[in-house]
Amino acid sequence: MGGAIAAEIYLSYHAPQRLNLPFYNVLYPYVMFRPLESVVYETKETFAMSHFQSRAYVYTNEDGFRVPSPHYKLPREKPPGQLRIAFLGGSLVELASTFDTALPGSLRRLLRERYGGRDIEVINAGIQSCVSRQSIAQLLFTVVDYHPDIVILYDGGNDLGLPLTYESRANFPYNFQTMQEAWDLYRQERQQPLWRLALERSNLYRLLRARLHPGERKTIPTADAPLAGTNALPASRIIADPDYVRSHVAAYLGNWRKLIELSAAYNYQPVCILTPTAAFATEYAVVEQMKSTHMDRAAALEWLRAVQMLHSEASRQIAEMRGAYPDAVFIDLAHFLEPPEKYFWGGHVYDEANKVLAQRIYADIRPQVERSLREVQ
Amino acid sequence: MYYLWIKRQMGVVFLCRGCPAGPRQAVLYNWSLPKTQSRPWRAVGLYGGIVLVSLLAGLIAAEAYLAYHSAARMALPFYNRLYPYVMFRPYESYIYETRETSPMSHDKSRVFVYTNEDGFRVRSPGYKLPKEKPAGQLRIAVLGASQVELASTFATTLPGSLETVLRRQYPGRDIEVIDAGIQSCISRQSIVELEITVVDYHPDMVILYDGGNDLGLPLTYESRPNFPYNFQTMEEAWDLYREEHREPLWRMALRRSYLYRAIRARRDGGGRNVVPAADDPFAGTNAVSPERIVKDHDYVAGHVAAYLSNWRKLVELSRAYGYRPVCVLIPSSAGLDANYAVPAMMKWFHLDRETAFKWVRAFGVMYDEAGLQIERMRRAYPEAAFLNLAHDLTPPEQYFWDLAHIYDEANMIVAERIYRQIRPAIESAMDAEAPR
Fold first, then answer.
1. Does A223 touch chain B (CB under 8 A)?
2. Residues 249-268 of A with CB under 8 A from B
3. pTM for the whole thing?
């Protein structure tokens, strides 16, 4: 008994530290998670995205959309004559120092300058960390209530990166396996007899079990395992398996198809954009990768090759899809922004780069914008 | 030290290898009665020990007695597996055959459940339900909860019964009815299931058969409209997990103790149970009281409007996916017939008579409001069929085996009634699909 207790204490002291999954939102049904509602959040410090020049000002409305100011009025009923564009996506849509420097805000500013005197609203419905299937759920249950004339789905970064980092099941949110684990643990703790719970928590038992079943996976990610998600795939597997790459990308682009299909029900013009990535600038990206994930150079290079493969396959499938959907707009920006000067971290660009992106997007969707402006008048 | 003390006090000698006196042979439990005159504190120790042991035994006896006499504790029922977006759905490619018979067949038949890779209930293991619809096939998908998913066999479920009715009516035609029911789900979940899974099967008609869970949830688990019944539990699980909060075992033991609960209940003077128990009618902390539902018309109107927004979604999505939309408010026994519902509520929810009456009234208010709003919606959506079957199965004891579920053979009656009301839509879909 004494020995078992001593072993328990020793093992718990030496056990690798548990990693926490980053989570910046609140759980929400169907979309799975979304930004907090009616939030006022102003930082005291400045941030990399503004080259450390500006603090961050975040305000959300009752649906979790980022808005220009606290209590900004964004009525669900669209005022007559207003052109309303909704922007869906992950952090690349939601984040920037201010509403105006985020991509939707930058597009709004550009359009208001270009069409002076017209009532133009661009909704920031971005949810950081989300994949495009989540954006579709957000569209169907929340965004369509705002009656947008144009819906822009700006994504790809999370969808294409997730198999390497957290989750290889197509269209599953990055935190879903953690949610399953949390749910199972919670139910277990309420249903299992106490002796079983004591056993499950014992480090000694865990060690013995690992010895007895060497193939069994760890359920709780720990600092000694480089991947936070147990459903992630090694880069080598992705590189060696073009079938997996094809089907993963097809599942991702299934959401572009959904955006177009739903436009028949909700009368908006669909625009799908593949986000810019720094992964093709290998020399820049490999250093970044080594820094952010503590990989050695060889591993980082392999990782980048996998990301490049996924992006190239996406570009290929997007080119193929164009013919099937002549009315939709597809924009492939994967190679649009050359690093390093526009990126500050991963796929995230500086505040001022959003302006460049807004100009580029406007150039491609100008006919749609002008058609909608005519229609709403 | 302890060794020496024991040895001196009780005359017990253990094997001791490292003692200064050298190794000794063990002489165990050489108990002798305390010499009360010479060492009074020894007697105090011993009698104290006896009192402690008796107390412990008393506690265990009380625990056992209370455990035996307490109402059963209700764990949150959960029959599915978590699934993103839909929130949960039936297990995939699953075979489940019971050994015993069940009340839905009047205890005549065992239960046979098989699902395909998307969790749809199918008639046999490995049944082929291709996503691409074969040419000339009329395909109908039925969405809903346990009233759609469950029955003794696929053929006796509502979708299976509807298929039988249609095949009898249109012999020689290829007709497939998909059972996409997910027990415990609400209609918002059905809409997600439709959007991310069912539309891939290209149905010509989609029937949303619901209302029971949507209208009952505010009383039982969850009053936030269109939130799944287990969402608050999921939030709690997620928060605890993220805080790495794992309750210490002693706290868990305490929480499970009946004695502790009894004492706490005395102290709180009737405060609400946080952990749902069968003696507490509310399983969910977000539930609202029946009094509130009866009094607060705005709440009821808002809740029902949120529920029926899913009917609107079904119609809206039909414009994108080209199916014919049919929405059905399911037959109910709760709230419509107090003679049947009150004893049934007392039995299933462990309510007292007075509370059961209040619940029945609250259910009645919800169903009446739903009926009113459905009538108003008809004009706005001429392309859809809206059926209100709430009052269709009377007397309830003839059709219902519990509050919300009907016998196997009653599904056939419902299928025939639905068919009679949507016959034009079925025949126009059939004409569109007719083999050329």
1. no
2. 258, 261-266
3. 0.85
